[in-house]
Amino acid sequence: MRFTLISAKKDLTRLGRDPLALLTALGIPLVLIALITLVFGGGGSATPQGKLLFADEDQSFVSGAIRGAFGNEPVSKMIAVESVGREEGLRRMDRGEASALLIVPRGFQNAYFRNQPIQLQLIENPAQRILPKMIEETLSIVVDGGFYLQKLAPVPLSSFAGAPPPSDEGAAFLGIRFNRLARDLRKYLNPLLIDLKFNVAAENPQDRNVAALFLPAMLFMSLLFLGNAHALDIWKEQAWGTMRRLATTPVSLAALLGGRLISLVVVLSGVALVGVAGMRWSAGVPVASVGLAAVWLVLSGAAFYLLLVSIAVRSSSQRTANVTGNLVVFPLALIGGCFFPFEMMPDWMASIGRLTPNGWAITQFKALVAGSAGARDFFVGAAYIAAAGAILFVLALRGIRKLV
Amino acid sequence: MIEIEELRKSYGEAIAVDGITLAARAGEIFGLLGPNGAGKTTTVGCICGLLTPSAGRVKVGGHDVVRDGAAARAQLGVVPQELALYDDLSARENLAYWGGAQGLRNPKLRERIQQVLGLAGLEDRAREPVKRFSGGMKRRLNFACGILHSPKVLLLDEPTVGVDPQSRVRLLELVRAEARAGTCVLYTTHYMEEAETLCDRLAIMDHGKIIAAGTLADLRSLLAERDLLRLTGVFAPAAARAAIEGIDSVEILHCDGSMLSMSLPEASAKLPAIFTALAQAGAEVRGTTLTQPSLESLFIKLTGKELRE
What are the φ/ψ torsions at residue B65 (nearest 5 degrees)? Predict the structure, then answer.
């Protein structure tokens, strides 16, 4: 154990001699947090809100229904709808004052009821990426819904075209028919009720903001990159001959690996504290337990390191180890929720992503942050990590011995 | 101090070390010579526990390197051919790390660091990162790391490769000082003159076997004061061999299409006869090297090739 600490001190001293590398490691989450805070303004209500300019030239029931679609949560939290005239809307879009302009042309309702071709015009702001796409997506759902309603409606919608408003009796009759249709179709249209169990209990939509969405992903991305860089560094020991020389001394190579792990844990602790503190106090994400969340990050980072070093030492050369490491890290980061949060992924991809080591760790981390997981969940998860870490340590050590 | 009995190391069908036996005593500098692939590095690897012998036994300071590896390695100081140092650490930090690996603790560690820094002539550069050192200084520090814990057995693998003459003299003097202090030194080198001036006993390895061993005097006696003549050019091996064999006292060591080497007494007197015989055999001689009796000529006599081949 004494030499393990000597080895850790050596690695930390080496890290200290290369302050740029150390600052990069410590600065990744800090920079990411700062950028997100700058972009979205920080604070707990930092959900980005786009503006949809709505030019309703039809002023009909259907055009009102389209506008109403943007008034439902969760879309309404992210997109504010403002009525404008066509010309004013176009002028404001030219000035980049909104995410998109939707023009509903005169005669839209009649054309829709008669199943005649007609165009909705959506003009998107090219300077924005996500919000116009969300508007486009919402609109396409509304249009698809309208199409299916025409196909499935219990009475021909064309009968409404140009007709006066229905009487109270007629409206009640139609209401009952549509209600029955909805009830019959519920089992087909609402299968998500069955899938609710796949939703992450940790996520409390009330507390979620963009920082809460992106920061855990970015912190885990930092852990993966840091672990990979530290794992590849073992090849320097091989190239310098220091690992081989150490094998001729009475100490075990386990002390070398242990020392490297401890030095990484020290660095990870810095990253975790800066990252979680940044989440809490800079980006305004409510963190239920800063301590547990930070320790979880450190444990996860240490396990990632052991996974990556056990892969790196099985490569045939430093270059191969580099390529292999990236081939492992990037797909894991992409699908495991480190580049894009699971909430932004298609369900099937998110389901797969949560099964990856980092995906599982991110999910648990979010639960700790949100407070839906407590100390008991933490210790159970930590026990899993410790068990996996022990196996990976042995695998890495075997690889190191072969490398010598 | 080092006892090797019937050591054999093979990798599948390939035999790297083929049943060698040798012993090196305390206070002795034992030279191990051989061309690349002779089995020196494998032998050294087995002694310091990096490789597990396929058969045979290796003991260091009375401890079996396989069954009692940690105790055997505790007796051992290794100075590898590569500079096994951390470039971004200072000389003192490197020494503290390697001292720690050998179990040294303060204040003994501090005291030994100071001593070996003095021996290596690095006291005034002790706090500088090693990357600022010259090649010679790095070699001296590499050596200092190996002797820091005052090992009973010191393995030196080509410790003077790429070293300036001044540093080489200093390093060789350090090796002698270690031996005088009672350390058993096993020294592998390509430099024949180093082996000649430094080693008390030598073993020459080729194809995994020891082909000659003894003191320098023992080995020189094998040459019987004969010169070594090496000719390069274009030869028909059978014809050249037949032509040379007709000349009195000439022993052909090696003959192929481009090189002919032979051992003979008073070679300068026999040169005209040799050239005439070869010309008659249709050979074209382009280069001539005449070597007086030495370890190098012995090596060529025994292996048919130069040490660096």
Answer: -70, -20
A385/A318 Cα distance (integer angstroms): 27
State whether B84 and A250 contact (CB < 8 Å).
no
Tell me, rounded to whole angstroms, the distance of Cα A238 from its chain centroid: 37
Closest Cα in chain B, distance from residue A225 (Å): 22
Phi, psi of A286 (to 5 degrees): -65, 120
B83 touches chain A (CB under 8 A): yes
Q: Which residues contact A210 (CB under 8 A, 6 or more apart)?
A: A36, A40, A46, A47, A48
Q: Sheet of B2-11: strands edge to edge?
A: B14-24, B2-11, B55-60, B63-64
B162 contacts chain A (CB < 8 A): no
Q: Which of B46, B88, B90, B161 to mutate to test the interface with A (most CBs of A within 10 A)?
A: B88
Which residues of chain A are within 8 Å of residue B89 when distances are taken between CB atoms?
A: 10, 13-14, 17
Closest chain A CA to residue B79 = A245
The amino acid at A338: C
Q: What's the pLDDT tens digit per position in B7-51?
A: 999 998 899 999 999 999 999 999 998 877 888 889 999 999 899
pLDDT in tens, B186-243: 998 877 788 888 999 999 888 899 988 888 878 877 766 678 888 999 999 999 999 8
CB-CB neighbours of A238 under 10 Å = 17
**pLDDT (tens digit per residue) in A79-94:** 888 899 999 998 888 8
- pTM greater than 0.90 (yes/no): no
Instruction: Number of helices (H) and strands (E) in chain A: give both, helices first.
Output: 18, 4
